[in-house]
Specification:
Largest sheet: none
Structural class: mainly alpha
Radius of gyration: 22 Å
Strand content: under 5%
Length: about 150
Amino acid sequence: MKRLLVSTFACLSIIFSAAANGNEKSLTVENRANNLSDQMIRELRLNNYQSNKLREINLEVVAKMMAVEAEFKGNQELIDQKCKAICSERDEKLENVLSTVQYNNYFGDRKVYSKYDKDFVASAGQASESTKALASTTAETEVPTVN
């Protein structure tokens, strides 16, 4: 009976930790680019053509930014400098896609979009950390012994 109970709890802890690791929300280039694009599409009131072009541009920009963030991890000053250059490339591309009014609205709200993107990355990181904490807590629970 004691062995059965111990093995049952061991199996349950393995199942819960595997389920928690499987459900972990990972931050991908597509998730991050789509989140930012959705926000910009709503606020700038883009048509279908503009929306598709914006998604392409943001996907490319976010991929470059995430590569820079991974390559220069720990050197925030260099990351900010390189990301600023990448964002200026996006500005040039968007100037050809957006109307004058839309581009002026975008240009004035660039800091807002940047903050929105950083908040999304932070919230995705917190969700990932809380899932890892749940998995480690489940795996570390002590198995009660029956005498």
